[in-house]
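Task: sequence design from structure.
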């Protein structure tokens, strides 16, 4: 396909849409705003989006309603709230724990915050909050969402814990329903309009990375201060979209020495040390993470990350 006809307007257009049949960008042209693909292209669509540097990926026809809404809002100068993704470079890295503590500290500072559970296989983030009985919507209630969701409609319908709203998968043994990327995009677009900070616990699976990571403005990658964890994080890093990504190392005080080395090996800025507190795993199991979030070491960690967000460093 000859793209030369689009060259005069390519860099001045508010938005550039590119079909997945285009495998290479024209020389010296900006990355597409949205990469369009069809249901059935599978993981190759997300890999192409990462290679091209696309800001968003839309899978059609499921994302048609979201795409129409996205195009209609392209003239709005207000980008809305910040979407921060948190993911673990390996299993047990502490991403969910960090996401909860960041949301808790943000709420303490008066920031309108939403915590989103992006891992349908993670057992339900609400269990870590001891909030499984809190009234409000869960992901299955929004599985068929599309197009525009009212800002007030969303915020008024979500449960609250620790001073922040949250959207979780149910903490039950039922098989989770599939939520299409279009529904995820519709929910996160509404969240941007209603909250100042949206923290997404992305998870590490291909499905959750594809559905949630592409809607994040910035991503924090968590990794324990261990060699194998660093290797696993390097592999996962290749699957993340082209957004600003920073490293958080989990460990005890000695990890402060290992952190810069791990960050350098990954080519990422180091933006925090998640403290290794005895009993954290048990606290997550018992729904007591919010209690641990009040500890000085945790608050120092969360405050430092939030400050970097405010400074635009993450």
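Answer:
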């Amino acid at each position: 396909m000859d793209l030369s006809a689009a060259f005069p307007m390519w860099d001045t257009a508010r938005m550039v849409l590119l079909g997945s049949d285009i495998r290479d960008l024209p020389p010296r042209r900006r990355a597409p705003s949205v990469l369009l693909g069809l249901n059935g292209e599978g993981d190759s669509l997300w890999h192409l989006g990462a290679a091209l540097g696309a800001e968003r990926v839309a899978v059609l026809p499921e994302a048609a309603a979201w795409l129409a809404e996205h195009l209609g809002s392209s003239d709005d100068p207000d980008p809305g709230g910040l979407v921060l993704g948190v993911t673990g470079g390996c299993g047990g890295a502490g991403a969910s724990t960090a996401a909860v503590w960041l949301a808790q500290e943000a709420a303490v500072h008066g920031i309108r915050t939403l915590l989103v559970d992006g891992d349908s296989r993670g057992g339900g983030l609400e269990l870590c909050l001891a909030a499984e009985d809190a009234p409000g919507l869960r992901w299955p209630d929004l599985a068929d969402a599309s197009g525009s969701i009212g800002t007030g409609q969303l915020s008024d319908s979500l449960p609250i814990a620790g001073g922040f709203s949250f959207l979780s998968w149910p903490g039950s043994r039922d098989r989770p329903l599939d939520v299409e990327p279009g529904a995820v995009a519709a929910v996160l677009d509404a969240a941007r309009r209603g909250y100042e900070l949206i923290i997404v616990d992305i998870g590490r699976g291909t499905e959750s990375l594809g559905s949630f990571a592409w809607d994040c403005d910035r991503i924090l990658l968590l990794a324990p201060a261990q060699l194998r964890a660093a290797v696993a994080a390097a592999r996962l890093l290749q699957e993340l979209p082209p957004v600003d990504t920073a490293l958080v190392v989990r460990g005890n005080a000695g990890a402060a020495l290992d952190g810069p080395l791990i960050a350098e090996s990954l080519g990422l800025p180091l933006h925090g040390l998640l403290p290794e507190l005895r009993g954290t795993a048990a606290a997550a199991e018992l729904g007591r993470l919010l209690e641990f979030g009040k500890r000085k070491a945790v608050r120092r960690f969360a405050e430092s990350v939030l400050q970097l967000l405010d400074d635009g460093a993450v």
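Residues 30 and 123 are 40 Å apart (CA to CA).
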